[in-house]
């Protein structure tokens, strides 16, 4: 029988998310990494600080969450590591990173039939100010809805579109090549999502990839989406992560919304690596 791993788990701000202390990810055994994943499944986000990790260490850790997911845009991946995406305003390893990727409330890969399970960020260089990551707790937001609103939203389906997202986003706007458009067809996901770990419900609204709500007039759909985004991103539901060098933060895309924030990119640098684990179809 496997020995139960005891972790020092502390709640993050406002009771959402958790920090695991006293863990060395580079030298942790498989049982410890599995225990970290188990903690993640029930907290929405998991932070481990003070790490010194090589790309292979990151891949080993993300693989305990699930099969590493590749990235749609290949030009910003680390040389030799297609599963590691560079977020940076400087050149890293012979490649320039993606600058301001992830600014705007969203959930990763929501334009896929099977969106990614989780996002992992490893902080290598931190700007002198700004560049925080904000996470919204969509389960707490759902629980705070009135019963009448829960019933209204329960059967609604969102139309997600990568093409729409890339042609309307604030940063990095681009027209898709025929190949990218064919590889990323529009998909449809429920507005209220059930978490497979314990059945908790999440108000799985998003911006960016959401084109409309099925069966609803465009103006009405846009107004409802704006109303729900404003609701779930209230301060009472949001954890702000102020990055330190060596932070590894993993958040659960099945029950959170997130956004990056701007920083003084003219006078300081940011370098972080992003990894994903494959997910499953929302239900």
Automatic annotation (TrEMBL):
InterPro entries: AtsK-like, TauD-like_sf, TauD/TfdA-like. Keywords: Dioxygenase, Iron, Metal-binding, Oxidoreductase. Residues 9-276 form the TauD/TfdA-like domain. SUPFAM superfamilies: Clavaminate synthase-like. It holds the Pfam family TauD. Gene3D superfamilies: Clavaminate synthase-like (3.60.130.10). GO terms for molecular function: metal ion binding; taurine dioxygenase activity. GO terms for biological process: sulfur compound metabolic process. It comes from the Bacteria. GO terms for cellular component: cytoplasm. Belongs to the TfdA dioxygenase family. PANTHER family: ALPHA-KETOGLUTARATE-DEPENDENT SULFONATE DIOXYGENASE. This is Taurine catabolism dioxygenase. It comes from Novosphingobium endophyticum.
């Amino acid at each position: 029988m496997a020995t139960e791993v005891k972790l020092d788990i502390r709640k993050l701000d406002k009771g959402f998310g958790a920090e695991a202390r006293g863990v060395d990810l580079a030298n942790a055994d498989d049982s410890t990494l599995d225990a970290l994943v188990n903690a993640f499944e029930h907290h929405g986000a998991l932070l481990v600080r003070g790490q010194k990790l090589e790309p292979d260490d990151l891949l080993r850790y993300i693989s305990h969450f699930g099969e590493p997911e590749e990235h749609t845009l290949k030009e910003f991946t680390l040389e030799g590591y297609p599963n590691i995406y560079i977020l940076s305003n400087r050149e890293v390893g012979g490649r320039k990173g993606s600058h301001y990727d992830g600014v705007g409330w969203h959930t990763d890969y929501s334009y896929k039939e099977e969106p990614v399970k989780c996002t992992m960020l490893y902080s290598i260089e931190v700007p002198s100010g700004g560049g925080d990551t904000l996470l919204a707790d969509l389960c707490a937001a759902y629980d705070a809805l009135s019963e009448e609103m829960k019933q209204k939203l329960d059967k609604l389906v969102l139309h997600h579109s990568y093409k729409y997202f890339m042609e309307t986003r604030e940063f990095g706007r681009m027209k898709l090549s025929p190949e990218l458009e064919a590889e990323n067809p529009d998909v449809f996901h429920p507005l209220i999502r059930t978490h497979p770990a314990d059945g908790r419900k999440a108000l799985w609204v998003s911006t960016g990839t959401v084109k409309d709500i099925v069966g609803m007039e465009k103006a009405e759909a846009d107004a409802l989406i704006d109303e729900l985004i404003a609701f779930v991103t209230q301060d009472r539901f949001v954890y702000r992560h102020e990055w330190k060098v060596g932070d590894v933060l993993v958040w659960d895309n099945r029950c959170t919304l997130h956004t990056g924030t701007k920083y003084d990119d003219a006078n300081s640098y940011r370098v972080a690596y992003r990894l994903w684990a494959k997910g499953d179809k929302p239900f």
